[in-house]
Amino acid sequence: MSLTKRELEVLHWIVNGSSNGQIAAILGISSHTVAVHRANIMKKMGVHKTAELVVYAIRNSLVSVSLPKNAEVTAEPVQSPEEPDIGWLQ
Fold first, then answer.
1. Domain 5-59 - what CATH class?
2. Residue 65: which pLDDT band, with cuts at 50, 70 and 90?
3. CA dihedral (46, 59, 79, 82) positive or negative
4. Quick one: CA dihedral 75, 77, 78, 79, positive or negative?
């Protein structure tokens, strides 16, 4: 899977949370062109949602992510329970 230079630029801004309109303004292209690039990137990566796109890009080192120095990360790993709690169904 190979992305063009422009697709990598668009991907960078997607990962940073920019909208198509914002990306268009930054890169000096139309929102429609950004949408086409986004669709091409997602097709090449085999993903269907922006969240999947971001995760794929980070996991495959297509982009780098840096947090502000004062950012606090509190996420914890998700563990599936041995037996799901279905009491609310009864």
1. mainly alpha
2. confident
3. positive
4. negative
